[in-house]
Structure formats: structure tokens, C-alpha cells
Write a structure and sequence with these properties.
Chain lengths: 363, 438
């Protein structure tokens, strides 16, 4: 067990840690900051789009940018991620088009990116279920012989994302048991944002979440989830350990959900604004900006250009959402099997013929 | 409205997965305001939460289509946003010709390529204004309301008084009509004269009565008060007390570093006194359980403070107030009142109170006969502290004096217990050192 990992304080000062170090230079830190800023805008725009009536629902990530972008950027191409429904920042790092994420929340499809191509599974709405999927996938990676070969392009790690509330679920605990027993190459990345909808952390656990790992027989580490240098370094080390055959790690990214659980939730009913104000001082972006500016690693131009890029992204998402094509009944049939059966094809054709009998039918 | 501008109407969205309606609580914009995409335009209250709505459109607000306080169905248009200011017919009850000459030059002209409003258009064409491109009369012939700038409260007052804003002479140089202008009754001569003579009770269109729905906090207050007043027989007692030494104590307490960041006032000492006095008279902090035929004594004090909020009376309480140090109690009271005033008191803070203080003194009132908060057995009313002539050692001297009154449930609290309690509270305020006795 190591102590709380923080490499950049909320004031933007670098910190040393006995076990972890961030080795990237100013270029990479700027690039991490850029991803966080664009992800924050993506999230803000999506929240507004829900209020405009363009999305059925949105699960905001605001406040958790450092946890997600740090975890996302530490991945290699061959690694595979199993997200919850809030991993918009990880999706961004995996190259998933934000519009594909929005189309899910608009109710058009269940996720339209290719999980194999992106190394990023579809969103899972059932709390904690994806932890088992991830462990199963990781055991498959083992059986494919893609662990511990020493080939950096072959050795693969798997990440299971979940929140503090999910640690109370049976699925997650079962996943811990299997991962430990089989020494699966998996990293459990728990974003402890302090609230399982309206249930506070103290109702989930009598001990810090990361310490639960010890009971299952693998290491746990608690990291400042609002410090991107720390989340990046810790995730990178855990992934490397998994790829080398060292087995699972539980990372508890200690962070805070600044917004509502989803757009349907009203957090003012169960938590005090004091708490939110307190966490504002620990903002994941502000500390990196302070660090970059104080050390002369980024100029006003950098931030102005980034602001303009964020505005352009916002505009693209607003316009793009309205243009998303409505799903056709065809998709119900076409996307069930890799190769459609004769029986299903016959059903599809019959349904098409039925639809064609309506006045003004499109096809 | 017949217009060729690019005009967008925002339909009330379903902000919470399957909601069918919402109440429009507050508008944050007014007609004529220029807004950007995602500027907050209003606050709505659904069955689940209070939500701010950002605008999906940029431009100038032409009309607010739903008044504050109205509950509307999802899909109802709530606001009209256009390229430039074009007053909507609905928003001001236009009598066109009369105001046609008053076109405000400040209003941006419509782009010529856009179809203009056709005064004498064929009715069939009016129904399909988009076919009128380039064929209608241009700007000069357009019947147009002048742009009157006013904030929402002034617009609301104008509606209430039945006054046309265009008839009001604004006192401000920038021409914005204020509520003061409306109250002064100064109207344009060019108005039709109806309003000049029609102030106050004779206001044309201003009804002699108006109705407000009983709902929300008001409804809850009504139900709670009726329940309490007609189940618990109330007895109320008074005592007038010299609190000068409490005031002197407060002056000293304010100097202490641990109380630097909190409000140190008479209410704090009273709250403490009420908690301490309950130790000697625990029945004050009990409740009559009709169903079980038992009196339930509480070994804790959840101290309620009656607070006036924008939405009405609420009584949030400090949990386990008897276990708090004075600085912690002060901080808890500050927090409670601030949260209540912002209308953000979470439901758990309103439940489970065991005793309440109502501070009518903050309104300058001497005393009253408060009604017990349901679920409790007593409520103490704190009157205003005033400098008054008082007899001390046979001399009439100016002292800080106030009246305390206590209402209690006479089903189980008899006059002796109620009097003992009230006297104990008064003695602590009169000489705070006696707090050491409890």
C-alpha cells in the first residue's frame, strides 16, 4: 500500500512521490490540458443540449476530467477499455467521435463506434456489470498469449471503469475474485466521485476503497483524481504491470462529481453547496493552467487558441446533433447477427412491405 | 405573428426522462434582450427538480410566451427569439394604427430580402407568409409597436395595473421604464387617456381582486398550521425581560477569535438558553403520540428556526443542537438561514424538528401567539429588543428590553411546566451567568 499519490497540487506545484513519477515534458502536459479543456466543453455542450430538448439524458463528467483523460491517455492502442456511461473523457482519448456518444444519449442507437477498432467497449448502463466483462476479456487476452511476451506492441492490458457506488455491487466483487485468482491483466479504475447518485461514500465503505484490494489479494492505490499527472503516472504503471503478467491493480481516483448524477438529478436536494465550493478549489484544469503559466510553458495565445477550438467543437456538436439521422426500422434486423439468417431476412422484407403500405412512406 | 425574420420558438423540453409538465418559475430575460446560445433564459420547476434552461438560439428576445408561475405541458412554446426586435402581438396587446407613428428609430431595420409584414395582404397570403418574399410593402408601411425597455418586474406591474408601457414617461435617461415610473402614474399624452385618470382602485383592466394559487410552500404551511392549531390545544404565556446583560455578553463574545466568522446575535444566546432550559423541563422537548397514547421524550434537541423565504415560511432545524458548542451552533444557524433564504433547504433539514424559535423581532414586532410546528410541543416567539425605561434599584434607567412568548401543547404540558421553562429561558437572557446552573 502506498500513500496518496499527488504529483501536482491544487495550487499547481509539482510534488515528489516515493513510488510514482511523471516524466512527460511541457509539450505533453499542454496536450493533456488541451484534452481536458475540450472534454469539459464537450460535456458542457451536451448538458446544454439536453436542456434544449435535443438529448434524452446526459451524465455529466465535469470535475472528473483529470481522472478520465489521465487514464485514457496512458493506454496503448492494443489495450481495451470497458467504460460506464460517464467515460466521455476516455472515449475522447480513444478517438470516438463525440457525436457518436451524443447519438446514444439522443436515443438513436446503443453506441455506434466499433469497440474493436477503438479498443473501447460500448457504454454499460448497468452499474458495475462491465467489471466482469473486462475480467473475462482480460482472461481471453491471457489465453491469446498477449501477456508477458516482452513485445510492447503485443502485450495488452484491460481497464474496467466504475464508480464508488459500483464497489458495493456483487458484480464488481466477483470480478475482483476472478481477476485475482487468474492473475488477469486488468486495471480496475474506480473514480470515487464521493456520491452514488444521492448516497454518500460513507454509506459505501468503512475504509478507503483502495484498501479493499488487499483483501482480494492484489495491490490498491489511491491517487488524487483531480491531478492529471498523477492519474496518468499511476495508470501507466498499473497497465504496464498488467501487460507484464503482474496481475490486477485497483486504482481509486479520489475526485468529485461537480455536476448532477445525470440531467434528471437535482443534487441540491441531498448535498450542501459548501462541499461543491470546497472542491472547486481543487479543479483539475485550474492547477495545470497555473503550472503552465507560472513556468512559462504556455502563453496567452495557447489558451486563446484552445478557447477558439473549444467554441468550434461546441458549434460542431450543436449542429451535428440536429443532423443525426433517425434510425430506420431496418437496423433492428440488420444489426442482430454478423450474417443475417434467411428467416430474419424474410421478416425484414415482410416488415418493409408493411411499412410501404403507409401513406408517404419513405421507402 | 406575420413576419419574415428568422424567428425561432423554443418548446419546453422534457428535462427529466418522461416528465409531462413543468412550472415556469422565473424568467431571466425580457423582451428586447439580446441573448447568446446557452445563455440561461429561465428557471423551471419539474416534479423532480428546479432546472435552468439555456437558450438553443442566439438573437433578440421577441416574446415571452408563458407567464411566471404557470404550469405548462412539455412541447409548449415558451420564448420567441429572432434576428432583431419585433414585438409580438401577444406580448403587448397591439392596437396597431394608433402606435404606427411611434416606430422607434433605434429598432434595427429588417433585412430587405426578408418578407415584411403585409398590411393589406390577401388573407390567404397572410396565412402563408413565406410566399410573400419581396412582394409586400417595405419597412415604412409596417405596423410596428415601439420598443419599450423595461425589466420583468415592471412589465408584471404594468400588466397588473392594466397600463400600456408605451404610455409611461420614463424618468431614466436611457428610456427604461421602471416600477417607480409606473407608480408615479405619469403617462404620455399620446396615450388614449384611459390610463391617465385610472390609477389605483379604478385602474381599467386592473381587477379589484386577484387570485394566487395555493401550492408549494404556501400549501404546506397552510396544512401544517391547520393540523397543529386544531389538534393541539395551545396555551401562550408572556414574559418581558431586561436583556441588557445579554447584549453586553454579545459585545464581548464578538471579540473572540473562535466566533470571528459567524454571526453573533441575541438569537444565538436565546437558542442556547432554550436548549439549556429544556434540561430542567424535558417535557417541552417531547411530543404527544396520539396513536400510541404515549408522550415521546427526546434526548436530543433538533432546534427549528422559522425563516421567511422568497417562497414562504419554512422551518429548517439544526440537528442535535444540544450537542454543539456555541461557535458550532452559530455556524449551523448561519448556514440554516442562508440556505433557507436561497430557497435551497434540503428536505431532511425540514424534518424531525423537536422545538422551534420564531424570531418576529427581526420584523420589529414585540410579541405574538405562535402556532406550534407539527410534531413538536412548544414554540418560543422572540420579540424585538428595544431600549426602554426600566426600574433598576428603584431608579428608572434605559435598558434593553424584550418580550418572550411561549406557546405549548396543553394536552401534556401543564401551566407549571410551561411557566418554569419560560422563566428559565428569561433568567438566562437576564443574567447569562445563570446558564451555569443548568
Amino acid at each position: 500500500m502506498s500513500e496518496f499519490v499527488q504529483l501536482l497540487t491544487p495550487e499547481g506545484e509539482r510534488r515528489e512521490h516515493p513510488d510514482y513519477d511523471y516524466r512527460g515534458g511541457p509539450d505533453q502536459i499542454r496536450s493533456l490540458y488541451r484534452d481536458m479543456a475540450l472534454v469539459r466543453r464537450f460535456d458542457a455542450e451536451a448538458t446544454a443540449l439536453q436542456r434544449h430538448g435535443e438529448l434524452g439524458l446526459w451524465a455529466p463528467l465535469v470535475g472528473q476530467e483529470a481522472a478520465q483523460v489521465g487514464a485514457g491517455r496512458a493506454l496503448r492502442a492494443q489495450d481495451h477499455v470497458f467504460p460506464t456511461y460517464r467515460e466521455h473523457g476516455v472515449a475522447w482519448c480513444r478517438g470516438v467521435d463525440p457525436l457518436q456518444v451524443l447519438s446514444l444519449f439522443r436515443g438513436i442507437d446503443y453506441g455506434s463506434w466499433d469497440p474493436v477498432e477503438k479498443g473501447f467497449n460500448l457504454y454499460t448502463l448497468v452499474i458495475g456489470a462491465q467489471a466482469l466483462h473486462a475480467v473475462g476479456y482480460a482472461m481471453g487476452v491471457q489465453r491469446d498469449g498477449a501477456v508477458g511476451t516482452g513485445d510492447p506492441d503485443r502485450d495488452t492490458a484491460v481497464v474496467a471503469h466504475f464508480g464508488d457506488g459500483a464497489t458495493s455491487q456483487g458484480d464488481v466483487n466477483e470480478a475482483f475474485v476472478f481477476a485475482a485468482s487468474y492473475q488477469a491483466p486488468v486495471v480496475f479504475f474506480c473514480q470515487n466521485n464521493q456520491w452514488a447518485i444521492s448516497e454518500p461514500l460513507e454509506r459505501q465503505s468503512r475504509i478507503p476503497l483502495y484498501r479493499r484490494a488487499e483483501g482480494f489479494g492484489f495491490p490498491g492505490v489511491q491517487v488524487d483524481g483531480n491531478d492529471i499527472l498523477a492519474t496518468y503516472a499511476v495508470t501507466q504503471a498499473a497497465l504496464q504491470r498488467a501487460r507484464e503478467g503482474g496481475g490486477p491493480t485497483l486504482i481509486e481516483a479520489y475526485t468529485y462529481r461537480m455536476g448532477a448524477h445525470t440531467t434528471t438529478d437535482d443534487p441540491t436536494r441531498y448535498r450542501l453547496s459548501d462541499e461543491v465550493e470546497h472542491w472547486k478549489l481543487k479543479d483539475p484544469l485550474a492547477r495545470v493552467e497555473a503550472y503552465l503559466r507560472r513556468n512559462g510553458f504556455a502563453s496567452d495565445d495557447f489558451f486563446a487558441e484552445l478557447g477558439a477550438d473549444a467554441d468550434a467543437l461546441g458549434e460542431r456538436l450543436r449542429a451535428g446533433v440536429r443532423q443525426l439521422a433517425e434510425p430506420t426500422p431496418h437496423q433492428l434486423f440488420d444489426r442482430v447477427y454478423a450474417e443475417i439468417s434467411d428467416e430474419l431476412a424474410a421478416q425484414r422484407d415482410a416488415y418493409d412491405a408493411y411499412l410501404a403500405t403507409f401513406e408517404g412512406a419513405a421507402s | 405573428m406575420v413576419t419574415g425574420q428568422s424567428v425561432n420558438e423554443f418548446l419546453l423540453p422534457d428535462v427529466g426522462e418522461g416528465l409531462t409538465e413543468a412550472e415556469l418559475v422565473t424568467w431571466h430575460v425580457g423582451v428586447g434582450d439580446e441573448i447568446k446560445i446557452n445563455d440561461i433564459i429561465c428557471e423551471i420547476e419539474t416534479a423532480k427538480s428546479v432546472v435552468e434552461l439555456p437558450s438553443p438560439y442566439a438573437g433578440v428576445v421577441q416574446a415571452l410566451l408563458v407567464p411566471e408561475g404557470e404550469t405548462i405541458e412539455v412541447g409548449t412554446p415558451i420564448i420567441r427569439v429572432g434576428d432583431s426586435v419585433e414585438m409580438a402581438a401577444e406580448s403587448t396587446a397591439v392596437d396597431g394604427v394608433e402606435t404606427a407613428a411611434q416606430v422607434d428609430p433605434a429598432v434595427p431595420a429588417e433585412p430587405l430580402a426578408e418578407p415584411a409584414e403585409a398590411k393589406d395582404a390577401d388573407p390567404a397570403e397572410v396565412e402563408q407568409p413565406l410566399t410573400l418574399v419581396g412582394s409586400g410593402p417595405k419597412e415604412a408601411a409596417v405596423v410596428r409597436r415601439p420598443r419599450v425597455l423595461a425589466k420583468p418586474p415592471a412589465r408584471a406591474l404594468a400588466r397588473e395595473l392594466g397600463v400600456d408601457l408605451a404610455d409611461v414617461v420614463p424618468a431614466r435617461e436611457d428610456g427604461v421604464v421602471t416600477t417607480a415610473d409606473l407608480q408615479s402614474g405619469d403617462r404620455h399624452a399620446s396615450g388614449d387617456g384611459r390610463h391617465v385618470a385610472s390609477q389605483g382602485r379604478d385602474a381599467v383592466g386592473g381587477e379589484r381582486e386577484y387570485r394566487e394559487p395555493i401550492k408549494g410552500v404556501r400549501k404546506q404551511m397552510g396544512q401544517a398550521m391547520v393540523r397543529s392549531a386544531f389538534t393541539a390545544p395551545h396555551v401562550t404565556e408572556w414574559v418581558t425581560v431586561d436583556v441588557t446583560r445579554t447584549m453586553e455578553l454579545l459585545a464581548r463574545l464578538k471579540q473572540r477569535p473562535e466566533l470571528r466568522d459567524v454571526r453573533v446575535g441575541p438569537l444565538l444566546v436565546l437558542a442556547r438558553a432554550c436548549i439549556l432550559a429544556a434540561r430542567r423541563t424535558p417535557i417541552i422537548n417531547s411530543v404527544w403520540d396520539e396513536e400510541a397514547q404515549e408522550v415521546v421524550f427526546k434526548r436530543y434537541v433538533n432546534l427549528g428556526i422559522a425563516a421567511a423565504t422568497p417562497r414562504g415560511l419554512v422551518v429548517p432545524n439544526v440537528k442535535d443542537a444540544d450537542a454543539l458548542s456555541l461557535p458550532d451552533l452559530a455556524a449551523a444557524l448561519d448556514q440554516l438561514v442562508a440556505t433557507a433564504r436561497d430557497g435551497k433547504t434540503p428536505p431532511p433539514d425540514l424534518a424531525g424538528g423537536t422545538f422551534t424559535i420564531t424570531n418576529v423581532g427581526s420584523f420589529g414586532i414585540d410579541s405574538g401567539t405562535p402556532i406550534i410546528n407539527p410534531g413538536e410541543s412548544a414554540i418560543l416567539c422572540f420579540g424585538a429588543i428595544k431600549r426602554k425605561p426600566w426600574i433598576v434599584a428603584d431608579q428608572v434607567v434605559p435598558r434593553d428590553v424584550c418580550t418572550l412568548s411561549l406557546s405549548f401543547d396543553h394536552r401534556h404540558i401543564d401551566g407549571a411546566a410551561g411557566s418554569q421553562y419560560l422563566a428559565d429561558v428569561a433568567s438566562i437572557l437576564e443574567d447569562p451567568a445563570t446558564a451555569l446552573l443548568f
